[in-house]
User: Fold this.
Amino acid sequence: MKRLLVLMLLATGLLAVPPSAQAVLKGRPDPVHLDGVTVRIYRGTTQVVTVNHTKGMHARVTFWTLSDGTWTKEFRATDGRIGYGGLVRANRRVQGSGTTPLGTFRLPWAFGMHPQRPAWDASYRRAGSRDYWVLDNRSAHYNQWRNRAAGGFRWRLPPSDPNASERLRSFPKQYEFAVTTSFNSAQVRHRGGAIFLHVNGRGATAGCVSAPRWFLLRTLGRLDPAAQPVIAIGR
Assistant:
């Protein structure tokens, strides 16, 4: 009865709800601000990677953990990279633009060129010679990991084709260690995908966030799916 009365008062506007309570009602806590980046955390999130764009293709990348209500910086790289096309709102990103999407995204699982290590989460995948990330707009597997033998996408398309998928083993340096993100998990065609946190290459990325090798190796040893980890990309 008491709960029903509260719901009626909320519906009529007679009972004011503070912003923090509104966030709880919506199922998401209030955003937090770490190193100048707004992080829209999920319930239960205790691990965050922030990407603070500094200048040009460069960014400061930081790994944070939450303990006893306090966010603590665990380690940081000042020579991270973003896409050659700069930053763009996630819902306005276009495939092939070289832009990095702004916002907060989940970090579901990692992959790389090496066999599984004891310190890494069990969801880690080792990329094989026939594993691709599908970017074929005609495929039902758009923006997903797919083995060539399973079919369902045009893996023969040359890299110059706008529908070409990424053969993961073609990027042994960048994808030596990588973490996937939830960007475009809804598979919106022509928005692109394969947005990862991976090892630095020679310059800007094609839309991913990259960081030094040591940062990725340390991240793989720390990421815990139970911590609901996210990456937040800001200006």
Summary: The radius of gyration is 20 Å.
